C-alpha cells in the first residue's frame, strides 16, 4: 500500500515521505480499514515536528482520524465486521494518511449515513472535543453568548456549529477575510476579523457591556489574556489548547474578583477514563448530523499525494477550514 511515513521528525514537507509499505494486519481487537477520507488536524503538524504529547516510535504514518470501510477484523472484535463503514482514530504506526490504516475497535464508531466520507471523517476529534467542552465541562444554555477563538479551525468550527445547535448567540474570531467568510458559512451570528477589529470591543457591543457567557479558547497566549476583559459575570473560559504557542499564566485574583470559571478540557483523557461518555457523545453527534443541525464544512478535498503540502499549509496557518485527503 501507499503511505506517508515519518522517519525523522521535522517540518511536514521534509518529514513526510510517500512510499510503498507492507499492508497492515488485523491484530487482536483491531480493524484494518481502507481509508476513504482522512482530515488534516493540528496534532498531525505536531507529530511531524516531534512536539506532540504522544511520540510514536519511528517510522510511523500520521493521520489521527479517518472514515473508511473495514476490510479485516482481528480476533475478539465483536462490534464491527468486514464491509462496515466507520469513522475512528487510527493506531500508530498505521495512521490515516495511507491507503490502509489500523483502528482499535474501541476507537471506532459507526459513520452516519447523512454525511459523505469527507464530512464523516471530520466528525470525531473536533466535534467530540467541542461537545465535551460545551456540554460536559460546562453546560452552554440557549440564549447565552458563546465566543469562539480560531473559529475557522478544526475544533473552533465544530464549536461554532454546536453552539448554534444549542441555541446560543455565537461570535467567531478569525484571522483574515477568507476565514471570516468560512465562519459565516458555518453559521456564526457575528464574525470578528482580528486583523481589523478588537474582539473585546465587539463582544461588549453585542452583549450591551455584559460580556460573553462562555469563551472557547484553543489558542492561548494573548487570546486568553484579552478574553478575561470580556468575560461575563459567572462566565466560563474553556481552555482547549495553545495553538498560538504560548501558555497563559492566569491571574487567579482576577477570576475571583469577576466571578468567572477557568475550565480545562483534555478530550483524550476520556478515552482513558470514560469510554462510555465518548460513545454517548458520538451518538448525540450522529443525531445532530442526521437532523441537519451540524455538518462538517469541508473547504478542500485533496488527494493522498497532497498530504505533505496540506499539512505544511495547516502548520503555517495558510489554510481556511477543513482539509480532507481522499486516497
Automatic annotation (TrEMBL):
One Pfam family recorded for the sequence: ADH_N
GO MF assignments: D-threo-aldose 1-dehydrogenase activity
Keywords: Oxidoreductase
PROSITE patterns membership: QOR_ZETA_CRYSTAL
Tree of life domain: Bacteria
Keyword Oxidoreductase: yes
EC number: 1.1.1.122
PANTHER family (UniProt xref): QUINONE OXIDOREDUCTASE-LIKE PROTEIN 2 (PTHR43677:SF4), SHORT-CHAIN DEHYDROGENASE/REDUCTASE (PTHR43677)
Descriptive protein name: L-fuco-beta-pyranose dehydrogenase
Organism: Rhodococcus aetherivorans
Amino acid at each position: 500500500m501507499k503511505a506517508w511515513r515519518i522517519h525523522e521528525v521535522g517540518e511536514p514537507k521534509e518529514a513526510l515521505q510517500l512510499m510503498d509499505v507492507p499492508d497492515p494486519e488485523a491484530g487482536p481487537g483491531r480493524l484494518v480499514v481502507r481509508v476513504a477520507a482522512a482530515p488534516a488536524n493540528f496534532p498531525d503538524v505536531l507529530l511531524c515536528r516531534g512536539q506532540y504529547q504522544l511520540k510514536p516510535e519511528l517510522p510511523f504514518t500520521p493521520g489521527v482520524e479517518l472514515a473508511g470501510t473495514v476490510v479485516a477484523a482481528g480476533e475478539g472484535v465483536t462490534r464491527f465486521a468486514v464491509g462496515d463503514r466507520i469513522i475512528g482514530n487510527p493506531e500508530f504506526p498505521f495512521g490515516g494518511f495511507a491507503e490502509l490504516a489500523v483502528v482499535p475497535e474501541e476507537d471506532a464508531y459507526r459513520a452516519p449515513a447523512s454525511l459523505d466520507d469527507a464530512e464523516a471523517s471530520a466528525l470525531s476529534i473536533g466535534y467530540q472535543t467541542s461537545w465535551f467542552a460545551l456540554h460536559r465541562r460546562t453546560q452552554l444554555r440557549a440564549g447565552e453568548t458563546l465566543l469562539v477563538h480560531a473559529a475557522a479551525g478544526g475544533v473552533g468550527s465544530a464549536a461554532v456549529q454546536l453552539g448554534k445547535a444549542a441555541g446560543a448567540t455565537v461570535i467567531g474570531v478569525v484571522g483574515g477575510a477568507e476565514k471570516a467568510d468560512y465562519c459565516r458559512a458555518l453559521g456564526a451570528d457575528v464574525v470578528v476579523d482580528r486583523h481589523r477589529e478588537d474582539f473585546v470591543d465587539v463582544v461588549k457591543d453585542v452583549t450591551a457591556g455584559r460580556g460573553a457567557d462562555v469563551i472557547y479558547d484553543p489558542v492561548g497566549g494573548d487570546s486568553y489574556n484579552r478574553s478575561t476583559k470580556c468575560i461575563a459575570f459567572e462566565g466560563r473560559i474553556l481552555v482547549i489548547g495553545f495553538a498560538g504557542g504560548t501558555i497563559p499564566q492566569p491571574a487567579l485574583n482576577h477570576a475571583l474578583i469577576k466571578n468567572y470559571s477557568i475550565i480545562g478540557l483534555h478530550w483524550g483523557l476520556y478515552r482513558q477514563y470514560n469510554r462510555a461518555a465518548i460513545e454517548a457523545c458520538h451518538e448525540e453527534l450522529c443525531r445532530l448530523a442526521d437532523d441537519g443541525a451540524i455538518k462538517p464544512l469541508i473547504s478542500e478535498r485533496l488527494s493522498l499525494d497532497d498530504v505533505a503540502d496540506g499539512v505544511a499549509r495547516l502548520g503555517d496557518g495558510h489554510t481556511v477550514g477543513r482539509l480532507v485527503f481522499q486516497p
